[in-house]
Amino acid sequence: AGSKLREVFDKINNLLSGKPVQTEGQTVWVTQHPQGLEFVCYKLAEKFVRHGEGEVSFHRDSAFPIAVVLSGIWELHPRVGDIFLAHLHKKCPYSVPFYPARKEGTSMEEYQRMLGYEVHDSKVEEQDHFLKRMSGMIRLYAAIIQLRWPYGNKQGAHPHGLSYGWRWLAQMLNLEPLADVTAMLLLDFLEVCGNALMKQYGIQFWKTMFFIQKSYIPRIEAVTSSGQMGCLSRLKNFVQKCLQAEEIPLPKGILTPSFWRT
User: Cα(70)–Cα(150) distance, rounded to whole angstroms?
Assistant: First the structure.
């Protein structure tokens, strides 16, 4: 509910503003310790990334309520946004976007961690689980860049707006594609913020979509084995439908004005 989301936002904002906040029967405030504010900014940013790789990866629509709160907090407390990006880029290098290369002397285990895989006791997580987590984090990022906290000051610019999404897409298409990962990331990104990018960039956006269809999808196909075609097929269908309709559908779960009246 919109009212519940406002409560969450106000509590976080009050804590970061140095006001006393009630939690689990205690009253806490960041001025209790010289590093209190820095610690809270760090843990809060980390928590938002965890929501992306956990909550959003399983419940895709949850990207929007989480993102709108973070967007508003980022606007008022830029330090949280900076640390959020640091956590996000470390957990999901594809959000830069960046495909780390294996350097000489780097162990396979360390390299897999650099690629975003979770490694416990030398056991690497399953590919499906890895892709799901990356998907959740990219969807959260794609939601953040297009959303503003509706009760904030609209005079200032979005702290990390659509221009960053446009840059992400351009940089992504300049990278050599990876099997599995690239098709999934592009589909997630376009599903969540394609509509917003279309409205903002118009003809330039449609030129990019045409480039994806004619040039980039064949490059993804060239590195994709027959057993990895699922996501690529969904990306092809999505791009084809959008080009035929000359429209990108609104993402599922987007927060409508009526949501804020609940």
Answer: 12
Q: How far apart, in whole angstroms, are the C-alpha atoms of residue 248 and residue 243? A: 8
pLDDT digits (tens, 9 = 90+) for 101-156: 888 888 888 888 888 888 888 888 898 899 999 999 999 999 999 999 998 776 77
- ∠ Cα 42 96 122 (to 5°): 75
Q: Which structural domain range is residue 41 located in?
A: 1-261
- Confidence class for position 98, pLDDT limits 50, 70, 90: confident
**Alpha-carbon span 113 to 99, nearest angstrom:** 12
pLDDT in tens, 185-200: 999 999 999 999 999 9
Residue 125 makes CB contacts below 8 A (sequence gap 6+) with: 117, 118, 119
Burial class (CB in 10 A: 0-12, 13-18, 19+), 61: middle
Cα→Cα distances 188→73, 216, 240, Å = 24, 16, 15
Number of domains comprising the chain: 1
- Predicted TM-score (pTM) of the model is 0.93
CA dist 135 and 132 (Å) reads 5
Cis peptide bond upstream of 97, omega within 30? yes
Residue 94: strand, helix, or coil: helix
Eight-state DSSP code of residue 108: H
Query: Which residue, among 235, 84, 68, 91, has the nearest Cα to 146 in the 3D structure?
Result: 68
- Torsion 5-10-11-17 (CA) sign: positive
Which residue's structure tokens are 């959260």? 140
The CATH number given to whatever domain includes residue 148 is 1.25.40.510
What pLDDT does residue 240 have? 96
